[in-house]
Amino acid sequence: MIIRFLGTAAFEGIPSLFCRCELCAKAKAAGGKEIRSRTSVMLDDDLKIDFPPDTFMHMVRDGLDLERIQDLVFTHSHSDHLYAEDLAARLPGYAQSLAHPIQVYANDAVLVRIKQTLDFNGGLQGKFVLSRVKAFERLELQTAVVVPLPASHDPIETCLLYYIEKGGKAILYGHDSGWFPDETWAWLQDKKLDLAVLECTMGRSDYRQSHMNIEAVLETKQRFDEYGMLNPGAGIVVTHFSHNAQLSHTDLTEIFEPHGIRVAYDGMNLELP
Ligand SMILES: [Zn+2]
Ligand SMILES: [Zn+2]
Ligand SMILES: [Zn+2]
Fold it and tell me: Record's SUPFAM superfamilies (predicted)?
């Protein structure tokens, strides 16, 4: 399986649009891995997680054929994960798209936003099928088996993490979330993972409730080890960074590499053999 890290920033991106902080200035000057767009990943080019406002740029940068997407899975409705307006671009009149509907799996907040936005453009028109998911319910998608799990993120929305089995590999897509809820740990503890994707929005700050800091990432890895959840050769990748943490890609790599954790960057491709 190939996992593409299309974007690796939190809501504001790095550099943030209107920001004059030191990290944003450095990122603008350095370019490359210091530039981070809003978070999304693509698995084998047919399963996409989240649809952020930078999807157009991801498509152009990586030469993606978005018509290969069969299943589109959402973690939650925050605007760095869902830009419903651009889903309308698949409707007749905007795209000569293929016949197949893209199957969308998400919580109710995401589905309502998508439906309302597409209703302004003539409705779904057979281009999307919307399915509401429930935590812990095993779903057999066209491209993978997935199980949504509760996150600790926004108290007014059921934000979800995903356990994904695809191409004989098991992945935990673990954000946005602070330290995982007990019920999520209870479900996860006898699973074997080949890859875990975690977030580190909060950097060195002393906060881990709705996003993780460095400490929470390291303790999550420790918990994976205690539970024996990592298959031999399994990887952990951190993503979803905020400029507020004031940590460059080089800083983050120095922090996480000694713990065997990879720091994602925009356009990073990982192959799980
Ligand atoms: Zn986010
Ligand atoms: Zn900034
Ligand atoms: Zn969020």
Answer: Metallo-hydrolase/oxidoreductase
How far, in Å, is the centroid of ligand 2 from the Cα of 11? 12
pLDDT band at 19 (very low <50, low <70, confident <90, very high): very high
The rounded Å distance from CA 174 to ligand 3 centre is 12
Q: Which domains does the chain have, with CATH numbers?
A: 2-11+22-264 (3.60.15.10)
Ligand 1 center to residue 175 CA distance, Å? Answer: 8
What band does 38 get if pLDDT is binned at 50, 70 and 90? very high
Q: DSSP letters of the chain?
A: -EEEEEE-B-TTTBTTTT---HHHHHHHHH-GGG-B-B-EEEETTTEEE-B-TTHHHHHHHHT--GGG--EEE-S---TTTB-GGGGGGGSTTT----SSPEEEEE-HHHHHHHHHHHHTTT--TTSEEEEE--TT--EE-SS-EEEEEE-SS-TTS--EEEEEEETTEEEEEE-S-SSPPHHHHHHHTT--EEEEEEE-TTTTSS--SSS--HHHHHHHHHHHHHTT-EEEEEEEEEE-B-GGG---HHHHHHHHGGGTEEEP-TTEEEE--
